[in-house]
Design brief:
The chain has 187 residues and is mainly beta. It has one domain: Electron Transport, Fmn-binding Protein, Chain A (Pnp Oxidase, Chain A), CATH 2.30.110. It is 10% helix and 39% strand. It is built from three helices and twelve strands. The radius of gyration is 19 Å and the shape is globular. It binds flavin mononucleotide. Flavin mononucleotide binds next to strand 3 and strand 5.
């Protein structure tokens, strides 16, 4: 593993006076998946549940790759691993629910991420929309979407979702995923 100094970054010539000094980036060229997963995990995210009715049964998976994309037209995206066995089922659904999980929903996140935990929705409060999206009760926000486009991206697919209906409960604080751990916002 090689390291490089961050000369010219924080504290370098011309840097604004309020940047901290003495914290040159510790860089590494190690891009193997485990190392990369650790660095990607330094980016804190929310946690969502992707879910829909498929053949009359709720099908779902946890996804932290949710990103709002466009206001007009209304688009959001998620990334689905090529190894996911749930995504190929979900993508068949006419409508797909995205629930932004609340700070108390770590258990739901774990359950919906566990392969072999069947029935995956056991004990979870879920609701279906008329069009067949599945939304989790107790979440902080909801999107009722359809798949607009899928773009191959390495070992994942970037899935662009068109938003049709939304909901929000501003009193629900979000669940946060960071460095492989669930966290809640302080304050
Ligand atoms: C916090 C968290 C975030 C996740 N985010 C994603 C994601 O964005 N995309 C993805 O494909 N899988 C993600 N997963 C993995 C899936 O939720 C799930 O483990 C996997 O899809 C289950 O396997 P299956 O698809 O074969 O049922 C995440 C898991 C956890 C615990």
């Amino acid at each position: 593993m090689s390291a490089a100094t961050g000369a010219g970054l924080a504290g370098g010539p011309g840097a604004p006076a309020d940047l901290p000094t003495g914290h040159a980036p510790a860089l590494a060229r190690n891009l193997d998946p485990l190392a990369l997963r650790r660095v990607f995990g330094a980016f804190p995210t929310g946690v969502t549940a992707l879910a829909a009715l498929v053949d009359g049964e709720p099908v779902g998976m946890t996804a932290s790759s949710f990103v709002p994309v466009s206001l007009d037209p209304p688009l959001v995206s998620v990334c689905a691993a090529l190894t996911s066995t749930t995504w190929p089922r979900l993508r068949r659904a006419h409508r797909l629910g995205v629930s932004v999980l609340g700070g108390t929903q770590e258990g739901a996140s774990r359950q919906l991420a566990t392969r072999g935990a069947e029935p995956r929705f056991a004990g979870l409060e879920w609701h279906r929309t008329d069009e067949g999206a599945v939304l989790l009760g107790g979440a902080g926000a909801w999107f009722d979407c359809s798949v607009e486009q899928e773009i191959g991206a390495g070992d994942h697919r970037i899935v662009l979702l068109r938003v049709h209906v939304t909901g929000i409960d501003p009193h629900v604080p979000p669940l946060v995923f960071h460095a492989g751990r669930y966290r809640r916002l302080a304050g």
